[in-house]
Design a protein that fits this description.
The protein is mainly beta and about 200 residues long. Helices cover about 15% and strands about 55% of the residues. Strands 1, 2, 3, 4, 5, 6, 7, 8 and 9 form a 9-stranded antiparallel beta sheet that branches.
C-alpha cells in the first residue's frame, strides 16, 4: 500500500511540474523559392566598379515559431553574371584568379546564430565557404512574414573580404605597389530570399 501511495505521489509531482514547463516549439523548415529569390554582387576598383548577379542552387530557412534560428543556402558559382554583360569579365570571375568555378562549383552559407534587433531586424552570423575556405560573416537582415504565410528575408549589405578566401588578384593589401590597377578587397552581396513551407 505504501509503495502504491509513493508511486501515486510521484506521478502527481511529475504531472504538476510538467504543467509549468513551456512546450518545446518544433523547428519548421521553409524552402527557398529559387525563381523569386535574388542574389546580387558589387565590387569596386580605383577606376570604377562592377556589379551583377549569381543564382542560388538551393536554400532553406529554419524557424521556431516566428523566430529565425537557422538555415543555409548554396550558390551556383557557374551562373555569375556581369550587369554590363561583359563575357570577358564573367570568364575572368570564373577563372582561378577569382572563384575557380571549375574546381569550386558552389559556395555555401550556413546560419550559426541569429540575434534579435528592433522590429523585424535581426543580426545573422554564419559560415561562408568560398573556394573551399570557410570564414564567419555577420550582417544585419530583415525578416518579414507575408499574408500568405510565406516569409521574405532580406540582407542589403553583406561585406566580404575576398582575400580571406584566397582571392588575391590585384589586392592592394597583397600587392602595395599595384597603383590604379588595384581592386578593393571587400565586395558586397545583397540577398532577398522568398521562402515557404
Amino acid at each position: 500500500m505504501k509503495l502504491k501511495l509513493s508511486a501515486l505521489a510521484l506521478l502527481l509531482i511529475v504531472i504538476t511540474s510538467s504543467a509549468f514547463i513551456a512546450p518545446l516549439v518544433k523547428p519548421v523548415i521553409y524552402k527557398v523559392d529559387l525563381e523569386k529569390s535574388t542574389l546580387t554582387w558589387a565590387a569596386k576598383k580605383v577606376t570604377g566598379g562592377h556589379n551583377g548577379t549569381v543564382n542560388l542552387q538551393s536554400g532553406s530557412l529554419q524557424f521556431e515559431g516566428k523566430k529565425l534560428n537557422g538555415g543555409n543556402f548554396v550558390i551556383n558559382m557557374a551562373t555569375i553574371k556581369d550587369a554590363d554583360k561583359s563575357a570577358k569579365l564573367e570568364g575572368h570571375l570564373k577563372a582561378d584568379d577569382f572563384f575557380g568555378v571549375d574546381k569550386f562549383a558552389t559556395s555555401t552559407f550556413v546560419i550559426k546564430k541569429v540575434t534579435s534587433g528592433t522590429g523585424n531586424q535581426v543580426n545573422v552570423t554564419g559560415d561562408l565557404t568560398i573556394k573551399g575556405i570557410t570564414n564567419p560573416v555577420t550582417f544585419p537582415a530583415a525578416v518579414v512574414w507575408n499574408a500568405d504565410g510565406s516569409v521574405t528575408a532580406t540582407a542589403d549589405k553583406i561585406v566580404v573580404d575576398r582575400t580571406k578566401f584566397g582571392i588575391k588578384f590585384r589586392s592592394k593589401g597583397m600587392f602595395p605597389d599595384i597603383g590604379d590597377k588595384m581592386i578593393y578587397d571587400d565586395f558586397e552581396l545583397s540577398i532577398k530570399l522568398f521562402a515557404k513551407k
